[in-house]
Recover the amino acids of this structure.
């Protein structure tokens, strides 16, 4: 039980943030998933999955996803889309790729969290993404927090590639870390995915084709006319402001809280994106 | 990286389970939330929140919840219902109660998990519920995993009581542990809650009264004619079979997995409920 202080809340931290605390994602690394209900915006993570990011962009640019469907919505787990029968031809992109489950830790600047993690010896944030690191193996990897984007695969580790994609919509399924390639995360619009009816076949697949949710288009933001883009800025994770944010969440000072635990788990740290002021 | 063995999967564990591995919740501690879309079934936890459980049952029995609405759906957080203006009279039950944020650890048999937890020194399962324990304070408490049922409150710790209830529908908001009274968990039907439209007002409240989702009835299962009950059985958490289940999830052996991390976080352990065989 920590005493209450005048330490800032998340609201305070954001209110006092400066322009340099924010960054604008490169539109060439931003993906739009367009549904009848609206747009889901993703930031891609080329530092962790360069081949998958390039391939998903190539798939988007050849129109591969347009008219495909969301085929699986498993409660407390994932939303997944693609071409389950793999019937649609792929022209310039690849159907499968070697896995990018982890990478060399060297070259990854990780803003570390101070609290223990159940699954990894070190966790934190790299370029705005939740990530983990292991000194023994010298590896770093992205972590399956809520809203992370991954490349579905079959049993063979090299059977993914981004033609089938999923988004985490439940409690972080950390057992998937280092088992599947993560390549980005949702910046806005996840509620368009999380409200979809759950599939009732095994693994949350929709039983009937007519239950599937059509995808209008998937586009790289750079290819979209500027007036039609969703202009977002993202709070940097490598700044003193972000450290203050983490502390404000480790020890909650809002009046409602009676007890400040003094710790925070990786996937409970808010990664803030907001409309860009013009 | 653990070598693959013939260790059982979850499916194997359930297939080889015996009748004694299962228990039938007391119908007097089971709550039905009836919506137009179907029934959500909760098991209540009188060992942790006796006054709140008794009060919620009294509220249900006087029909307090019938015709009230779900007023808040905040993505990755909670679904909440009640009477936000507190206008509906309460007859035999209480509107507010002293908090039951934690209890004496003595008397709580906890099936401990072996892996570190970010928030508590010891975690595990007590009578089928995710729970934590702290030797220093001698306290035990229920934990905010996906599907847990809590009693909303205002800023004063004694301003809850069960007239307003919430269910966790996102990544475990563990900062709420010991700050609010948890009194049960969903056994079935959570997908009726998780697909509801997210509210667009602050904290995910619905902006307009007509967006609220009507509650047909809330009943204690014991008060429902046996033929109309949802007969479920729940896998015990204090058995060798449950230990085998935990091990099967700490080290995933299904063919799909390339890497078995050898650990599991509290809220990732499946707490299995299934229709009771007749």
């Amino acid at each position: 039980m920590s005493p209450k202080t005048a330490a800032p809340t998340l609201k305070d931290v954001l209110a006092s943030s400066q322009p340099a605390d924010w960054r604008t994602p490169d539109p060439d690394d931003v993906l739009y998933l367009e549904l009848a209900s609206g747009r889901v915006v993703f930031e891609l993570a080329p530092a962790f999955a360069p081949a998958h990011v390039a391939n998903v962009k190539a798939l988007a640019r050849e129109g591969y996803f347009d008219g495909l469907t969301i085929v699986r919505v498993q409660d407390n787990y994932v939303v997944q889309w693609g071409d389950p029968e793999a019937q649609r031809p792929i022209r310039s992109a690849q159907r499968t790729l070697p896995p990018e489950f982890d990478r060399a830790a060297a070259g990854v600047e990780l803003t570390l969290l101070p609290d223990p993690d159940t699954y990894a010896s070190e966790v934190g944030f790299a370029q705005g993404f939740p990530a983990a690191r292991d000194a023994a193996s010298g590896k770093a990897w992205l972590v399956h927090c809520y809203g992370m984007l991954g490349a579905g695969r079959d049993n063979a580790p090299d059977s993914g590639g981004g033609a089938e994609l999923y988004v985490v919509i439940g409690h972080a399924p950390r057992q998937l870390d280092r088992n599947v390639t993560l390549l980005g995360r949702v910046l806005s619009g996840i509620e368009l995915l999380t409200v979809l009816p759950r599939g009732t076949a095994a693994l949350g697949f929709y039983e009937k084709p007519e239950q599937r949710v059509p995808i209008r288009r998937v586009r790289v933001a750079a290819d979209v006319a500027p007036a039609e883009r969703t202009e977002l800025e993202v709070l940097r994770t490598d700044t003193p402001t972000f450290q203050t944010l983490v502390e404000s969440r480790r020890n909650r000072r809002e009046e409602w809280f009676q007890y400040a635990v003094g710790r925070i788990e990786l996937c409970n740290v808010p990664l803030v994106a907001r409309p860009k002021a013009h």
About this structure: Residues 153 and 267 of chain B are 24 Å apart (CA to CA).
